[in-house]
Specification:
By secondary structure, this protein is of the alpha+beta class. The strands form 4 sheets. It has a 6-stranded antiparallel beta sheet with strand order 6-7-8-11-10-9. It has a two-stranded antiparallel sheet with strand order 1-2. Strands 3-4 form a two-stranded antiparallel ribbon. A hairpin with a 2-residue loop joins strand 10 and strand 11.
Length: 263
Amino acid sequence: MRRTMGPGPRYQELADELREAIQAEATVLGVQLVDGAKLPTEPELADHYQSGRGTIRAALAGLAAEGLIETRGRAGTYIRRLPLLEYNVDAEHPRRRDRTGTVTDTWSSVVRESGREPSQDFKFRIEPATVVIADRLNVAVNDLVVVREMFRYVNDIPWSVQTTFYPYEIAKACGLDTPTDIAEGTVRRMAARGYVEDRIVHEISSRPARADERERFDLAPGVSVLLFRRLATAKDVVTRLTVEILPADRNIITHLTDNSEGA
């Protein structure tokens, strides 16, 4: 016999309500819950929501673990909400048109379209393929692969890390085997050299952030990271494996399915 689930704990209900209010930048007790705003005090919230201070404290602790608020000692509790960056899984298209009027890589274009400024630190290396990478790229173990890594920022805030592995022969043929950034993006560069990606498998998962990731991205203890993997092919030839780590408190990954007639 299936058991009917009852309502959750009161503190969880309050946490959900406050989270929605923060995400909507709503006003509670005269305070608009935008980034940097100071929350009403625990007694004020307890009176407003007709709950005990212990319940309020538990709800706020949950939101703090998610990175939505932070307590600054006696100064009080403040909203700590970075505006989400929405990234569509279908954005990496070799014939994509930049709305900004300049030819840039996909990620930079998405950031600028959101009204913010992108920047990144670039690293490059050539290394033997591990068992896992060799299996994904359909090359032999210890075959050389080109690795291009981007540590990315939005308005100078650490935002994500993207590491892409390319079979060496494809990277060499497309001019990706040099330690320089490629302004138009590697997807367009490969397409211009005859490797037009026609199939991308997307894998999206999450896990708790490691200690080094919490430090690198300045994450609250309970914030998870998203793992966004893309395996791309051009005419059944694997062109790249991209592995991206994105803090879940500032990134959202979307996909549009159009089932309308004639689509």
